[in-house]
Amino acid sequence: MKHVTKEELSKMDGASDICAIELSDAAVNVMGYACLVAIMSMGNGYHRESQARLHQATVDNGNPAPVVSSAGALVDGIKAIGAKRVAIVAPYMKPLTELVVDYIRAEGVDVVEWRALEISDNLAVAAHDPARLPGIVASMEHLADVDAVVLSACVQMPSLPAVSIVEAQIGKPVLTAAIATTWAMLRALDLDTRVPGGGTLLSGAY
Fold first, then answer.
1. 59, 78: one domain
2. pTM for this one?
3. What's the distance, CA 65 to chain centroid?
4. Domain for residue 49, yes or no?
5. Residue 195 maps to a domain
6. Is Isomerase one of the keywords (predicted)?
């Protein structure tokens, strides 16, 4: 995928079954579908369908493995920390960001405020400087009304160096798609979920 568009995301998702089959050849203990928007752009609740289908593909290949998706992990992570209202930063163009916002709202989480950075080139998303994120969050107008901030609703966009900074800045939990995916995979492996510098969700309390 070169450009983050609904069409390219759909093509990428269409290749996910063969990817799961090939990865299961290695008899892994867990798999992560690490593209949030590829799932969320396919329709509300799609992460459940995708995870079940990909898991079945591993079963059929003789090496069953649980499948975690970034989309499902983020929703679960938000709920795990008890957040009901969130603000979101996403690198996507506005139409895709609106799909993400609608998806999260359909899961029962109120998205109070969001920022779309409108980066369409996938490599540019990966090159986005996380040092910009504290300023982006500071520009939000309704932080007092949220329980947590999703600092990056995209596994591709770097954010980890800014997580602790923004938590200290706003005095509220901060999580990301990548952090939530890590948390969900650690839980699937029954491993400790404490990762220093990983924010509230990876504090070990959840």
1. no
2. 0.94
3. 20
4. yes
5. no
6. yes
CATH number at residue 152: 3.40.50.12500
How many structural domains compose the chain? 2
- Residue 102, SS3 per DSSP: helix
Q: 125 with 91: CB under 8 angstroms?
A: yes
- Please give the residue range of the domain that contains residue 172: 72-182
Residue 87 maps to a domain: yes
Residue 124, in any domain of the structure? yes
Contact 35, 122 (CB under 8 A): no
| Cα gap 159→85, rounded to integer Å | 21
Angle at 36 between CA 180 and CA 16, to 5 degrees: 115
CA atoms in the 13 A half-sphere facing the CB of 152? 31
Contacts of 108 (CB under 8 A, 6+ apart): 79
Q: Active-site positions?
A: 35, 154
